[in-house]
Every structure is written in structure tokens, then in C-alpha cells.
Amino acid sequence: MLNAAGGNAGVMYLADGDALNAAAAFDRSGADVASTMQQVGSTQILPLVRSAADTIEPQGGALTLDDLHAAQFAPLKMVAPCYAVTIPLSTRQHELQGVVLVLRDTPMEPAQLGFVSTLANLCAGALEVRELTDAQRKLFDAFIRVMAGAIDAKSPHTGGHCGRVPELAKMLAKAACDATDGPYQSFQMSETQWEALHVAAWLHDCGKVTTPEYVIDKATKLEMLYNRIREIRLRFEVLKRDAEIAYLRALADGEDAEVARHQRDTELHGLDVDFAFVAGCNQAPSSWMPLRKSGCSASPRAHGRARWTTISASRRRNWPARRAARSPRCPRRSGCWLTSPNT
Question: What distance in Å separates the CA atoms of residue 49 and residue 37, rounded to the nearest whole number?
Fold first, then answer.
């Protein structure tokens, strides 16, 4: 734009609230002197710059040596007197984005000013797109953080898991990028890949938003809206009721009471063992899987304090008759019996 305006030097100011800060500056030789430009207050800024910012209209005029010193334009290496043109940068809503100051040795023609103003509008559009892109990125980042926070709030027992994963993922990725030897010595990530990792880490649990709470916070395998082990328990109670009915019918039919009682007790004990196994399977695997280590392939049926135990024939002969009758035999291994403190 400086070349199109025929300028010898120039400064681009960007608006930051009510302040105007020099974002770019080129001296008479074309060198970038933005880093040497001093930030001046609203009282020291060039009046033409302030006027263009207030009216959102191009302004022009002559500058004296005192004007150059007051605006602290020494790094621009301009010689007074000179001419200045200020062109505002504004959005389509006439919001100020900045001001372009062009310093020339001669006044600018109206036709050239119109052309430069058109270029300034294009620059303003590019700045607006950049600001909108940054705002959209910040909005999206805020959205994924809110979603992650909602997921953590939905499952408080995870203890801020969704907030820790992004930090740990970035630490691991940085360690891989910093590696100087090993399989990751040539591993590097671009800015786009870092942004993708950031988004993926924050959204890795987004599926929990639509997952029912009784699935996320499921305490047992049969739990849905409630723990359905109660239904299984009810069915076992019905079977135990049937065993009691069969026992009473046997007594009514004149069968031997001891035999009928023994048959009932055996059936009730078997139902209790089977339900204990089902109840154990309903819990976390760690509560019943260790029983597989007892050395018998049928050991998963044993639950709680019950154990499948290899017992010699001589030892079993010394068991009381009631205990021997209530101890089921392993169907897969000879000499293996289910024992518990109750048998």
C-alpha cells in the first residue's frame, strides 16, 4: 500500500480499545522500524491520525519539523516540511480497526487517494476476517471446554479426567518432539497437528454426553435403571418356594420325613450356591475371577467363602452325614468338592 500511495515512509496503527498502537512502520529507505517506534499517548499522537480515527474519513495535511518531533517520528527519517495522508481502516459496520499514515514529499492527488482508500478497505476486510477467525477459534475452544466440564460434572467420580487428559497428551507429544534419539528422534508436529491434538484430547469423551447415566455410572453388570439382580433373586426364591412345597407334599403323602428334608435341604443349598455364583458374576470380575486359581476348571461356580477343594476319600469318610450330603461334587474333576464354613 505504501508503494501504491507513492509514500516515502509510513506507519500502520491498529486500534486497541480507544488506543492506537503502531503495528508496522517503514522509514524513508524502506527498512522496518516498527520495533524502534515509541508508543505515544493519545495526547502525543499526530492530530491527523486522531481525526481520521474519529471521523472514519481520510485526512491530509502538511507536517512541520515540530509536528514530526511531537509525534516521535525520528525513526522514519523524514525531512520537514512533508505531507501526510491518514486513511482509516474500518469494518462494514464502521468500527475502527486502525489507521494507515503515509508520509510524502508532495501532496496526494484525489484520484490516487481514492485508489489507496480502496486498497485500505481490502486490508480492513482481511483484518476483519482474521479477527473473526480468531473469535471463532476461541468460541470453539470455549465450547469444547464447556462440554468437557459438563462430562466431568456428569461423572464426578472421574475426578476431572477430561481436564487432565489434554495436559498429559500435550506433555507426551512435546516429549516425543524433543527426543534426540530413539524411534521418536525425527518426530515433529506442525501447528495444525498441535491444534488437532488439542481438540481431540478435549473431546475424547464426548460420547458420554448422549450415554445414559446408568451406563456411565453402572455399578453392576445387570444394572440399568435399577439393579436387575433383584429379578434373578426373585426367581430363585420362587424355586426355593417350590422346593418347600414339594417337601410339604412329600410329608402329606406319607414319605419318610428325614429323606424328604434331606432332599429339600440339598436343593435349597444348590440354589443358594447357584445364586451366589450369579451374584458374583454381577459384580466386578475381580470379586470372583481369582477363584479360578484354585486349580479346578469348575471353580467359577464357587463364590464367597465357598471353595472347590480336592479332598481324599479317607478324609471325606470322616465328614458328618449332613455335611457330606450338602457338599456338591465337582462335575469336571474327581475328588473335588465344594466346601464352605456352612457345609
Answer: 16
Distance CA 204, CA 216 (A): 15
Res 47 pLDDT > 60: yes
How would you list the strands of the sheet with 59-63, edge to edge? 19-26, 9-16, 96-104, 82-90, 59-63
What does the pLDDT average to over 49-72?
Answer: 85
- Residue listed under C-alpha cell 492527488: 109
| Contact (Cβ atoms closer than 8 angstroms) between residue 33 and residue 23 | no
User: CA-CA distances (angstroms) from residue 125 to 93, 130, 259?
Assistant: 11, 9, 98
Q: Residue holding cell 450330603?
A: 325
Give the burial class of 236: count Cβ atoms within 10 A of its Cβ; 0-12 exposed, 13-18 middle, 19 or more buried: middle
Distance CA 97, CA 204 (A): 38
* Assigned C-alpha cell, 282: 454381577
32 is written with which cell numbers?
Answer: 522496518
**From the CB of residue 341, how many other CB atoms can be counted at a distance below 10 Å?**
7
Output the nine-digit C-alpha cell for 301.
461356580
Q: For residues 46 and 101, is the Cβ–Cβ distance under 8 A?
A: yes
* For residue 195, pLDDT beyond 90: yes
Report residue 3 CA to chain centroid gap: 48
Cβ distance 57 to 88 under 8 Å?
yes
pLDDT in tens, 24-38: 888 888 888 888 887
At 124 the pLDDT is 87
Long-range interactions of 161-164: CB distance < 8 A, separation 24+:
161/205, 162/202, 162/204, 162/205
Q: Report the predicted TM-score, pTM, of the whole model to 2 decimal places.
A: 0.54
Across the chain, which distance is largest between two alpha carbons, in Å?
Answer: 132
Residue 289 has pLDDT above 70, yes or no: no
Exposed e or buried b per residue across 314-339, where buried means at least 16 C-beta atoms within 10 angstroms of its C-beta:
eeeeebeeeeeebbbebeeeeebbbb
Task: Please identify which residue in the block is written with the cell numbers 480507544.
Answer: 18
The residue that leads in pLDDT, 317 or 30, is 30
Do 63 and 50 form a contact (C-beta atoms < 8 A)?
A: no
Confidence band for 340, pLDDT divided at 50, 70 and 90: low
